[in-house]
Specification:
Radius of gyration: 15 Å
Number of strands: 12
Mean pLDDT: 87
Shape: globular
Order of helices and strands: EEEEEEEEEEEE
Largest sheet: 4 strands, antiparallel
Number of helices: 0
Number of domains: 1
Low-confidence stretches: none
């Protein structure tokens, strides 16, 4: 079943970006990105846009889209796929962004040393894994592989 068409527009006041997105395209100011897959979620940092692609309903787990997160710059250029940073070919169900001040609100982050001014992408798999990526240094900084309360 194909998702219903939608369109959303928001202004990122901090960076001055105007971001518009629909099922399978994103506009950043005057730059359009046409996507192969439908969008499930978007997470925005100061200088990057992370797109989580939808996972098709009704497909077998073996056919589920893996590494379904891409990072784009403010001009619509693909920077990297999450599989370039996190190994394992994971299917992701949700993403969110935290600053260095809010990342400790995530469960089980006591061992994480947040760096001032850095932003963090939290990637939740369809299973019980969670990965935290430092988007400034583009590296994996924490992985948890268990269910947590929160």
């Amino acid at each position: 079943m194909k998702a219903t068409k939608f369109m959303c527009t928001f202004n990122d006041l901090e960076s001055g970006r105007n971001i518009t997105f629909s099922n399978s395209f994103v506009g950043i100011n005057d730059n359009l990105i046409y996507l192969e897959h439908d969008i499930s979620n978007i997470a925005v940092t100061k200088d990057k846009l992370f797109i989580l692609y939808s996972i098709a309903e009704g497909c077998s787990f073996d056919d589920v889209l893996r590494d379904n997160i891409d990072a784009y710059d403010n001009y619509g250029n693909l920077l990297y796929n999450i599989g370039d940073i996190i190994s394992g070919k994971n299917p992701y169900g949700n993403i969110c962004i935290h600053s260095d001040n809010t990342i400790k609100n995530e469960p089980l982050t006591d061992s994480l040393s947040a760096i001032g001014g850095h932003e963090y992408l939290v990637c939740y798999t369809l299973g019980d894994q969670r990965f935290i990526v430092d988007t400034t240094d583009m590296k994996l900084v924490l992985e948890t592989c268990a269910r947590w309360n929160g």
